[in-house]
Amino acid sequence: MLDLVRGISKYSATALVAGLLLVPALDASARTPPESFADLAEQLLPAVVNISTTQTVNRERRGGEQQREGQRRGPDIPQFPPGSPFEEFFKDFFDRGQRPDQGPRRATSLGSGFIIDAAGYVVTNNHVIDGADADGITVKLQDDTEFKAKLVGKDPKTDLALLKIEPGSKKLPMVKFGDSSEARVGDWVLAIGNPFGLGGSVTAGIVSARARDINSGPYDDFIQTDASINKGNSGGPLFNMQGEVIGVNTAIYSPTGGSIGIGFSVPSSLARPVVEQLREFGRTKRGWLGVKIQSVTDEIAESLGLGKARGAMIASVAENGPAEKAKLRQGDVILSFDGKEVQDTRRLQRVVAETGVNKDVPVAIWRDGKPMTVTVRVGELEEAEQVAAVPARADPGQNPRSNQAKVDALGVVLAPISPELRQKFDIDQNTSAGVVVTEVIQNGPAAEKGVRPGDIIVEVGQEEVKTPADIRSKVEKARQAGRKSVLLLVDRQGEMRFIALRIDKG
C-alpha cells in the first residue's frame, strides 16, 4: 500500500483506494506558502502607525451627587504582620481609593492605523478615536516620530475614521488599498499593529472566511482571519501578499480578551469608498431608497408565486422618499438594484448605500406575480431617515363594524378596531385600517409565526381587509387557487411586516 501511495501523482490515494471518487491533486500553479514574511514586513512596517488618544472623563457621582468621605466605603485593607513592608504600601493605596472625587480625569487608549497618502492621511477605527479631546490624538511612526492628528471624519456604521497629520518636510511612507473581493479563503495575510501598546507587531495567518456578519452594524461584511489580532490592533491593516491593504482590523472574538485565532477586518471594498467620502466631504454620503425591508421566506415566495426565496420585500414606503416617487409600493420584492442581484436584505442595504446620490438606477421588482422594472433616483441617507425606522402610512378610511370571528385556517380570533380594543391593546388613534387579532390559537399557523393579540391584519394576499369576513373570504379563495400559504401584512405598534401563514394543514 505504501508503494501505491508513493506512485500516485495525479489523484488522491484515499479516493483511489475507496474506488468511488477520484479527486484531482492540487494544481502545481497553486500559491505556496512563502519561505519568510521578512521582506514584506520590512517594506510595510514604516507605513503602519501607533495611535494614542486622551479624553476627559467626568467621574460619576453615585445617585447624581458626590458622597461625603465618611459615607464612602471600599474593600477592607488586607491584614499583615506588624512592621510588614506591605502594610504601609496597601494603606497608601486604599487611602487614595477612599478619597472623594476630585473632578474630571484624563483617560488614554491605544490603537493602530496606516498611512494612505504622503500628505498625511491616516486610516483607523472610529472606536479608537471616539470621544478623544480635540487635541488628544497622537500618531507615532515606526521611527518614534510623533504628530498631533486632526480628525477629518468618522463613520460609526462601518467603524472607520480618517485622520490628518502635518508631516512638514518629513517624507511619509504609505500603503495602498487592494481589492478584497479577490481574496480567497485560505490566502495568506499579514496583520500589523500595536497590540497591547507594544507597537510594530507583525502576525501572519490566512483568510478564514469572508462576508461574516457579526451584528456590529448594518453593513457587516467582515473578512475573518486567524492572524493574531489583540487589543491595540484595532485600526491596523490586513495585507495580502502583494503588500496591499485588503482589510482594516476591527474586532476579535475572544472569551478572554486575547487572540484565539478569530479576528475580523472591514474589507477594503467597503472601507475604500467610505474613506474617500470622509476625505472629500468630512462625512459619508450614502444612497437612500426610503423603504423598510424584510427577508423573503420560502412561504412568502410561494404565496407570491416567486418560486425560490430571494430578493428583499418592501414592508413600508417612506412618504416623499425616492421609492414612493418611483411608484414602488408595499409588497414589491426587489430582485436587483442598478444591475446588481439582490439575494437578501443585507445585500440590498449595501448596494443602495454604495450607490451615488441623485443617480437614476433601474430596479427590478416582482409585483402581482410578474417581474417588472422601475427607475429610481437615489436619495441621500440622513440620520433621521434610517431605513429601519420608516413606518408605513395608514389608510384614513373607517372600518365598518362586524362581529368577532374565528378563522380556523389561520388559528386566530379577529375583530374590527373599536374603542375598547384600542384601549386594551394600546392601538394608536391614527390607526384605522385593518382587523385586530384578539386571540391566537395555541399551535396554530399564526402562533407558529409569532402573531400575537393586538396585531392588526391590514392586507391578505396583498389586498386590503376591513372585516373578519374579508379575511375568511380571501383565505378560502387562496385555498381554492391551490395556494399552500397566504401572505398577511401585519401592523404591530406602527411597524409593518409581511408574514406568510400555511393554510394547507386544516
Could you characterize the architecture of this molecule?
- The structure is a single chain.
- This protein has helices at residues 2-7, 13-18, 38-44, 85-98, 126-129, 268-281, 298-304, 322-325, 345-354, 419-425, 445-448, 468-480, and strands spanning 48-57, 105-117, 121-124, 137-140, 146-148, 150-155, 160-164, 188-193, 201-212, 222-225, 237-239, 245-252, 263-267, 287-288, 291-295, 312-317, 333-337, 340-341, 360-367, 370-377, 379-380, 405-407, 412-416, 435-440, 456-460, 463-464, 485-492, 495-502.
- The chain is an alpha+beta fold.
- It has four domains: 48-55 and 113-164, Beta Barrel (Thrombin, subunit H); 180-281, Beta Barrel (Thrombin, subunit H); 287-389, PDZ domain (Pdz3 Domain), CATH 2.30.42.10; 405-502, PDZ domain (Pdz3 Domain), CATH 2.30.42.
- The strands form five sheets. It has a seven-stranded antiparallel sheet. Strands 22, 23, 24, 25, 26, 27 and 28 form a seven-stranded antiparallel sheet that branches. Strands 8-9-10-13-12-11 form a six-stranded antiparallel β-barrel.
- The longest helix has 14 residues, at 85-98.
- The chain is elongated, with a radius of gyration of 30 Å.
- Residues 1-23, 61-77 and 383-402 have low confidence and may be disordered.
Give the topology:
Layout: H1 2-7, H2 13-18, H3 38-44, E1 48-57, H4 85-98, E2 105-117, E3 121-124, H5 126-129, E4 137-140, E5 146-148, E6 150-155, E7 160-164, E8 188-193, E9 201-212, E10 222-225, E11 237-239, E12 245-252, E13 263-267, H6 268-281, E14 287-288, E15 291-295, H7 298-304, E16 312-317, H8 322-325, E17 333-337, E18 340-341, H9 345-354, E19 360-367, E20 370-377, E21 379-380, E22 405-407, E23 412-416, H10 419-425, E24 435-440, H11 445-448, E25 456-460, E26 463-464, H12 468-480, E27 485-492, E28 495-502
